[in-house]
Design brief:
This protein has 333 residues and is of the alpha+beta class. The chain contains 5 helices and 16 strands. Helix 2 packs antiparallel against helix 4. The chain is globular and about 70 Å long. The termini are far apart.
Length: 333
């Protein structure tokens, strides 16, 4: 049976062995060399299933642990596989998994130990109970019928849902050799599309300067969707990415600013599209061109907790229903 190792991408310490079916708790402390007080001493609980090739990750700490930039959530358990990236807390302290063949054949019940050398290798969440609003805004953009190669990735976990939707003809409104556009399953406005690359890119953190051309194409397709919208002259649109998305696979939001949708129900929904948590497409491209990677401000997740205020006139309102009623004054029918 293979042996599982947890590898610090930054090389902060030697790899940590995760014995088969044994619980390992990690966080702030000498084993990880982490001193950040936002990281709990018991931040995550890990349990390797070496015979199946994955590790179960449970978030114990109050601050977010994420896999491929998708937040696990306190007391939730998510399966992590080789090739995925674990950020221990607040998108920091990056780890990957490696399963190696056990040359001794001894794998059960052994005391956790560390590997002597470091192998430096890189290796749409919404509530399922919400009913999707009717959306009759299918835009007549020509479809390129050349089929892109389909992936066989497992899409059973909710955060993998985009990978299923992007191959669903009922969800698609446009596709070409590089990207597909789908209707958001739980739209937060009258018009809400997602532009996704066929190429498997897990998150903003995985983007590099060689992806600039692809992101520029995604932006052009987004512009094309907006121009063919029947209400383009009366409603403003924004194009951007969530700083820490709830769904795995890079996706560009194209969303009208009326926010007229029954699926917009919470403060988190509102602030994720109206604060700096929503990063404009051109800003992401500029980061890649300038720095070769995307960086997210520390503590940006706190923006989701801000008080509610109108994105047009900045008037503060107490509840989401009162906010939505107020917004109607800016967008008369």
């Amino acid at each position: 049976m293979p042996i599982c190792w947890l590898i610090s991408v930054e090389g902060n310490h030697k790899p940590i062995r995760l014995p088969h079916l044994q619980t390992v708790v990690l966080g702030r402390g000498p084993e990880t060399t982490i001193k950040d007080k936002k990281c709990s001493r018991q931040q995550v609980e890990l349990q390797a299933e070496c015979n199946k090739g994955y590790v179960k990750v449970r978030q114990l700490g109050s601050n977010p642990t994420s896999i491929d930039s998708v937040v696990v959530g306190k007391d939730n358990v998510v399966k992590m596989k080789p090739g995925q990236q674990l950020h221990l807390v607040n998108q920091l302290y990056q780890y990957t998994l490696e399963f190696k063949v056990d040359p001794t054949g001894l794998h059960g019940g052994s005391k956790r130990q560390r590997e002597p050398t470091l192998d430096d290798r890189d290796g749409h969440r919404e509530s399922p109970n919400l009913k999707a609003a009717k959306q009759t805004d299918r835009v007549s953009v020509p479809v390129n019928h050349r089929e892109a190669t389909k992936t066989n990735e497992h899409v059973g976990h909710w955060n993998q849902g985009l990978k299923a939707s992007m191959h669903d003809p009922q969800m698609q409104v446009y596709k070409d050799d590089l990207v597909v556009v789908i209707k958001d399953k739980y739209p937060k406005a009258r018009y809400h599309w997602l532009v996704l690359p066929w190429q498997s890119i897990s998150s903003l953190k995985a983007l590099r300067d060689e992806h600039c051309g692809l992101l520029k194409h995604m932006q052009r397709v987004a512009d094309q969707m907006i121009q063919q919208c029947p209400d383009v002259h009366s409603i403003h649109f924004r194009k951007g990415y969530h700083a820490i998305p709830s769904m795995s696979h890079v996706h560009l939001h194209v969303i009208s600013q009326d926010f007229d949708s029954p699926c917009l129900k919470t403060k988190k929904h509102w602030n994720s599209f109206t604060t700096d948590y929503f990063i404009e497409s051109h800003d992401i491209i500029q980061m890649l061109e300038t720095n070769g990677r995307v960086t997210v401000k520390e503590g940006i997740i706190e923006l989701l907790k801000q008080s509610l205020s109108c994105h047009m006139c900045h008037k503060e309102l107490a509840t989401v229903p009162s906010l939505k009623e107020h917004i109607k004054s800016h967008f008369p029918c």
